[in-house]
Structure formats: C-alpha cells, structure tokens
Amino acid sequence: MSRQELLSPEGLRVDGRRANELRRILCRASVLNTADGSAYYEQGNTKVLVAVFGPREPRARGQLQHDQAIINVEFNIAPFSTSERRKRSKGDKRLLEIASFVRQTFEGAIQRSVYARSQIDIYLHLLQHDGGTLETCINAATLALVDAGISMDDYVCACTAGFIDETPVLDLNSVEESSIETPDLTVAVLPRSGNIALLQMESKLHSTKLDSVMELAIEGCKHIHKKLDDAVLAAANDLAEKLSH
Amino acid sequence: MVAETEPSNIETQFLLDALQRGHRTDGRGIYDYRTLKITGGSTSGLVTVQLGQTRVLARVSCTVTRPYPDRPTEGIVQFNAEMSSLCAPHVDHTMRSQEVTVTRMLERVLRQSRAIDTEALCIVAGHKVWTLRVDVHILDDAGNLVDAAAIAAICALRRFRRPDVTVDGETAVIHDMRDRNPVPLSIHHTPVCVSFAFFGAGELMVIDPSLLEEQARVSWFTVTLNAHKEVCALNKAGGVALTHEQIKRCVQVAVAKVEEINEKIQEAVNA
Q1: Given A74, A215, B202, B267, which is the most exposed site by the fewest CB atoms within 10 A?
Q2: Residues of A in contact with B251 (CB under 8 A)
Q3: pLDDT digits over A182-221, tens only?
Q4: Does A92 reach chain B within 8 Å, measured CB to CB?
Q5: Distance from CA of A124 to the nearest CA of B (A)
Q6: Which residues of chain B lie closer than 8 angstroms to A199, CB-CB?
Q7: Interface of B with A (CB under 8 A)
C-alpha cells in the first residue's frame, strides 16, 4: 500500500496548506426561519448546519430541573456527506458520543441557571464530511446559540491539530485524519480566559510532543474566535439595518 | 427504580475543606492511587481487578466469523461494559449512559490506539477471522470505573490464549486446546488510563477519585498512556474549563503513575 505523502518536503500538505494554516472558514448566523437560533458553518469542505430551539418547556416533565436548564443535543450525519453514501442508524455510538461531547461542552459554557426549568435543544446536521467533525459542530453551535440569544459565559471555539513527520499540523482534513499514523487532537477553548472546555485525542502521540500540538490548536482557536465574532457582528448589523427602516 | 442518593452538603463541604488543606477523606495523598489488586480466574481470559472498593471483572472470548467486507484481512474486537444493580443501588437495566461511557472509553483506548494487532487475528483473508469479545462487568462502583475497567480489559487481553490454527490454502484447522497449546494474542502496547477529578473552581485536583469525590467534582479528565510514555488518548468533556497548565501537570503526574501501574500489570500477566 503506497503511503500518500501528507507533508511534502517543501512543507505543503495535500490541500496546499502549510502546517500552521487553518482552512477557509465561512459562517453565517440566522439562516433558518423557524429556529430560535441557527448557523451555517463551513471549514474547508466540512459543512455543518445547526438549529437551536430554546429555552422552551422540557418535553419530558420528569426530567425538569428546578435550578438549571437541560441541554439536549442531537447530531445527525447526512448519508450524502461522505464520498460513499452511508446511512447511519440513530443509535450509532459514534454519533451519540459526538452529541454527548457537544452537550457536555456547552453545559459548562451556557449559564444554565438563568433558564431554570426549561430545555435548550441543539440540532446539528453534518452536510459534508471532510475532517474536523467535532470542532465544526462546536463552532457552529456557538454561533447558533449566540444567534438565539442564549446567555453564555463566553464563546466556545474548537480546533483540531495533529502531528505529521515531526511537525505539529493545524486543522486536519479527512485524508490526514484517516491516516493511521496521525494523532488527532481536538481542543475547545473559552477565549477570554484561555481555559480548555474540551480536550479529546485518539491514537498515539509521545508525551513530550503533546505540548506543541496543544499550543498550536489553542492558537487556532483564537483565530476561529475572531471569525465567529465577525459573523455575529455581521448578523447584528444586518438586523439593525432592517429595524432602522 | 431507586433515585441516586446525592451526598449531603455537609459531606461535600467537609471534602472541600479537607482538600484545601491537602487531605483526602479516605486518608490518601492527592497523588495516591488506591490499592490495586489484579487476580486471574479459572480461564485464561478472565481477570478481576480491585481498585480500592471498586471491583471490575473482564472476560475475553473468541469465535470465528466472517470479517467486515471493507476490512477483509483484519479480525474484529468488540467491547461491552455492563452494570447491574449489584454495583450500586440506583443502577438498573435502563441506565445505559454510564455503560456507554465505559464502553466507548475502552474502544478508544484499546481499539483506536491500535493496541491489539487485528491483522494477526486473520485466519483466511476475506472468509474467516477471529472475533474477540471483551465483556467488562462492573461488580462494585466505588468511584473511577474507567481506570479499573481499562486495567481489567488489557490484563484479560494479555492473559487470554486463543486456540492455535493451521491454515492450508483455503482450509483452516482449529486445534483443540488439548491438542496444541493455545496461543497468546498479539498486543502492541499496554495503554493504562489515569483519571483526575477537580474541585472548587478547578484549582483542587485529585487522582483516582472515590465515589464521594466523583459526586462532588466540578470537572474531570482522563489521560491514557502506555509504558513508552506515549499518550494514547485524552478525554476531557464537560465540567469547568481547565487551564493549559493543569492539563500539562496532569499528564506529567500520569506518566509517573503509569509506570507503577504497569509494574502491577506485568506481575499479574506473568503470574
């Protein structure tokens, strides 16, 4: 099996980026009419659409919490999102796991005590899969939650990083992710404090190299924070214009 | 179904006050693990791990099946964690979320880190491969199930012996255990999980949390390392956000702890 060269000797990756470059990010808030908040987020070829509903009455009255809101996350991967059409069952462990990570991340960021006795639903749909599923979901969900006007302590910005040929590499696409030798680290950061809300890594990476990869990912999160902030401002300016007429 | 009894405010306050003075309620130091005891069972793939009062049992078994169509030369490894009402009064068959957490953790630690050589499980490419089933039963939940389950699973896998196979072209002969000595599995490395819990605003940390510490924690983090100081998995999801320094410190502490745990595992595996 020929090993595809993920990092050329000139320092270029399979899609022409350098090791520390993020993919192109396009994001827009308020893309759906019926949802309280929504966002469309593209990072390279990975595309996610998020709808946020809430705060609203919890569907299961028995799960109501008197002092804080329940966060419910559902994650769906469209069958057409990968190059081979593949329909995943609702109970797929990988889907449940990603939904659970997103939920736990936002349980820490959303000011749940402001919305006691209610439920906030986050519905994520992955429309095209090209690596960085968890990071794009978290970034898109942040944008949608801000669009819905839900109180949060801070933005939650996520980024992936890996290690190819002794070089820390930022924002892996699916070719790089699926390579066996590339460790894949996802970090979600609260930009104001710089604290880490989520840290996930699978596959081996020597402990001495961990620091450099984590620092690169956290740097990436700062850039993503800027993009999300710009998108929020753009949506707000849009709304202000419409209201002023 | 009985509701889980949460610790009283006095208990959690006592725990926090003690931690602020550097003491833990069970007398351990901040960086101390509970006593770890690993015992083998009647068959090669059966291991019981006791971490303090937490007891976990792991059982490895194998059958011959067809491989997945997109991976014809690789064997299959399946993980399954089960909790029954034995382990805690509030658990019953409908509480799946913690089982799923432990199962997914085992999958990530053992399968995604490529600890088990699945190509060595192939008998006849495209037709017959070994399917390993790792069943982890949680007998007693006294905190830190993930670490105990991971140790149990990797010990069971390393102690397990599968029947020997001779392949002649397209036909394979599986020898009975009595005819030929069973063969060990091909395990590349031994990943060990180390879990931490954080309290207060995230500045107080303990390793190997007990049940009370787990109920009172505000944040948690698991590092998985092997004997070569390679990080196999990192898992921090939920709870209060942690600083980069804390994560670095946890990884350093984990590197030291994994050496100790590995010694115990080596003893148990070679026994």
Answers
A1: B267
A2: 207, 210
A3: 888 999 999 999 999 999 998 888 888 999 999 999 999 9
A4: no
A5: 18
A6: 221, 234-237, 247
A7: 100, 103-104, 107-108, 112-114, 189, 202, 221, 225-226, 228-244, 247-248, 251, 255
CB contact under 8 A, A205 and B237: no
Query: pLDDT tens, B182-216?
Result: 889 999 999 999 999 999 888 899 999 999 999 89
Q: pLDDT for A2-16, tens place per residue?
A: 456 778 888 888 888
Q: What is the pLDDT of residues B21-58, one digit of tens each?
A: 988 988 888 899 999 999 988 888 899 999 999 999 99
What pTM was computed for the model?
A: 0.90
Alpha helices in chain B (DSSP H): 9-20, 97-106, 145-159, 211-216, 244-270
Query: Does the CB of A207 have a partner CB in chain B at under 8 Å?
Result: yes
ipTM: 0.86
